[in-house]
């Protein structure tokens, strides 16, 4: 699993966040995606890493500007994940 954090300029309302989330869901196989206009970030959880240039194409196609992309492995945290340690 990967956690991909995007820095996105130009989101100004809840609809902007919704447009970004829907475009990412339609373009890539993701587990979850959330956007915050106040933090200027979109966080994606996915099984496979996503190419930054492909993300940039989707974001710029909506009229927003992608300024940074970070990707890091993340653990799936289920209800009983504390038992694995």
Describe the structure.
With about 80 residues, the protein is an alpha+beta fold. The chain has a single domain, classed as Alpha-Beta Plaits (2-Layer Sandwich). The chain contains 2 helices and 4 strands; from the N terminus they run βαββαβ. It has helices at about 15-25, 50-60, and strands at about 1-10, 30-35, 40-45, 65-75. Strands 2-3-1-4 form a 4-stranded antiparallel beta sheet, with helices on one face. The protein starts with a strand and ends in a 12-residue tail after the last strand. The mean pLDDT is about 90.
Span of the ends, CA to CA = 18 Å
Instruction: Describe the main β-sheet briefly.
Output: 4 strands, antiparallel
Structural class: alpha+beta
How many DSSP E strands?
4
Strand percentage, roughly? Answer: 25-35%
SSE string: EHEEHE
């Amino acid at each position: 699993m990967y956690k991909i954090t995007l820095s996105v300029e130009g989101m100004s309302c809840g609809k902007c966040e919704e447009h970004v989330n829907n475009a990412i869901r339609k373009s890539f196989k993701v587990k979850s995606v959330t956007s915050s206009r106040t933090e200027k970030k979109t966080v994606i959880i996915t099984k496979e890493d996503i190419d930054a240039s492909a993300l940039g194409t989707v974001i710029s196609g909506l009229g927003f500007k992608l300024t940074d992309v970070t990707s890091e492995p993340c653990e799936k945290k289920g209800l009983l994940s504390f038992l694995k340690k």
